[in-house]
């Protein structure tokens, strides 16, 4: 019995050592592994931040419309006033979480776009994940240069405007260096695309990721624990390393909404194991 206890203890120490080593490797590669709070959209932002913590994640991408909670009235909204912004920043500090991205937003006017950038500046947002309308692209490009904040075009599944990397590349041509792509690899799979090939097409333009593994290649596919599905997660990670990608990787787990923490936690553990092998 004593030997078994010693074995289990040593196994636990070794497992922790591997995880720490992989986390160090992730940071050195410039990857910010966190979660899109939409993963926990059945809960308040305050509750979502606690769930991130239980998954070992400290970077968060917030979305517009989530109830804030934690004693703060209202919803996350890029139009919230300065006092509300300060309350949310204080909440993030209390929860020891860093807000790195915001989205996916589709502002309706140039005035709204200006508000998004002001909000991002005030909140320390590094990347605005979005799906701009064609008529706003030039205005967004100017705002990117003015604020020096990155904008990343997100790919909802076919037939959304940016479902294919080619449409993203067309929108980026001749515009601000602060404009790039938010690569949602799960949505590419839903659209029948190969995520590694899509990443290769967008080489040099990828600012952020919505990370998913799916059970099948179809519009009806659902999320599964990373590394157990058909999204070729090892290949995706190898491609990101080859491209020397530096940016935000947000877990966005859209399944088992009421209790996804165990699967997100297992996904993170699998991610770190795969990173260790890169």
TrEMBL record:
PANTHER family: HYDROXYPYRUVATE ISOMERASE, INOSOSE DEHYDRATASE. Keywords: Isomerase, Signal. The lineage of its organism: Bacteria, Pseudomonadati, Bacteroidota, Chitinophagia, Chitinophagales. One of its GO terms (molecular function) is isomerase activity. Residues 1-22 form the signal peptide. The keyword Phosphoprotein does not apply. This is Sugar phosphate isomerase/epimerase. InterPro entries: IolE/XylAMocC-like (IPR050312), Xyl_isomerase-like_sf (IPR036237), Xyl_isomerase-like_TIM-brl (IPR013022). It comes from Chitinophaga skermanii. It holds the Pfam family AP_endonuc_2. The keyword Acetylation does not apply. Residues 86-269 form the Xylose isomerase-like TIM barrel domain.
